[in-house]
Design a protein that fits this description.
By secondary structure, the chain is of the alpha+beta class. It has 6 helices and 12 strands. The strands form 2 sheets. Strands 1, 2, 4, 5, 6 and 11 form a 6-stranded antiparallel β-sheet that branches. Strand 5 and strand 6 form a beta hairpin.
């Protein structure tokens, strides 16, 4: 039924606000265990059972407090309300259903505006180990204790973050290829994979493949290309940087593992390794890329703005780290 300010709240309607599992979704569906794209793993609010027709102040306030608590984390603006006390006639203050719908949509979108996130320390680092003139391909994986915790993590705004750095020169000094790699590194910046979308903090070079609309919810058991950046401004315009990802179960809410694959490719066919007898005294690695390092971190939801508990991964691994010349 439709409500206006001052209307009495009935037990059946209260239970819809709390526990509806269909649109309009109740608080427990998007904030509790939930299903599909919903759920944050928070404590559920009890429904009114056994034919009770009186909603207590404590019951109503628990819903109002829960709404405000989730809104604090998602950074959504809710209707201004005050708590009720024993003896008050419990009434709809205004727009409860609309506020619940706003929060449900935010959770389903991966809490895109959440700021209670903390960048974790480096989980995995994979260096090329040597200078190269071909490709550096790395696979890193993260695993959760169960599929629900994976869903709670990403729905709360948690993300996988990948960084690329160059830690050594190709030659005695930085080569033209090193400069091209550096431009690709800047173009990617932070590569973050969230629930529904992925992002890069950089913006330069040519975005040859744009799959940033893909998040964990969109991934399958085979790799999805999220981006392919092609070098545009330097000497080696055939050089590319690619980010891909896959899951162990294509149904969001059933997957427990996410694997990220990163590839930097030097497609230049004119590479040579100069020999020690070179009469022009050119560094033998003049046409090589220096040592590169792919690192994986997590952006973890925190309790700073109301969520408690919060969830994170149980394990991470280097799946592969290969260099080809």
């Amino acid at each position: 039924m439709a409500y206006a300010a001052g209307d009495k709240i009935l037990d059946d309607e209260f239970n819809v606000f709390v526990a509806s599992t269909s649109d309009p979704f109740g608080f427990n569906h998007f904030a509790g265990t939930g299903a599909t794209v919903y759920g944050l793993g928070q404590a559920a609010i009890p429904i009114v059972a056994g034919g009770t027709t009186t909603i207590t102040a404590a019951q109503w306030n628990s819903l109002l407090a829960g709404i405000d608590n989730i809104a604090n984390h998602t950074n959504d603006t809710m209707t201004a309300r005050t708590a009720v006390t024993t003896g008050d006639t419990i009434a709809i203050k205004s727009a409860v259903a609309a506020d619940l719908a706003t929060l449900a949509a935010s959770v389903a979108g991966g809490s895109a505006n959440a700021t209670a996130l903390s960048a974790g320390s480096e989980l995995r680092s994979s260096r090329s180990g040597t200078r190269y003139a071909g490709s550096h391909i790395v696979e890193h994986s993260i695993t959760f204790s169960n599929a629900n915790e994976a869903r709670f993590f990403f729905n709360a705004g948690g993300k996988i973050r990948v960084n690329l750095t160059r830690v050594a020169n190709g030659g005695g000094a930085a080569t033209d290829k090193d400069d091209s790699v550096d431009e690709l590194i800047t173009a990617m910046g932070n590569f973050d994979i969230g629930a529904q979308v992925s992002t890069r903090s950089g913006s330069s070079e040519t975005l040859t493949t744009n799959g940033f609309a893909n998040g964990v919810d969109d991934l399958g058991t085979g790799y999805t290309t999220i981006f392919l950046i092609t070098q545009a401004n330097g000497t080696y315009t055939s050089m590319t940087l690619k980010g891909e990802a896959k899951v162990d179960n294509a149904t969001y809410g059933s997957a427990v593992k996410v694997t990220v694959k990163m590839t930097i490719t030097d497609a230049d066919s004119g590479d040579i390794l100069y020999t020690d007898g070179n009469t022009d005294s050119i560094d033998q690695f003049e046409n090589f890329i220096g040592v590169t390092d792919f690192a994986m971190h997590m952006l973890n939801p925190t309790t700073a703005q109301g969520l408690n508990p919060v969830f994170t991964i149980s394990a991470s691994a280097v799946v592969s780290n290969n260099v080809a010349n």
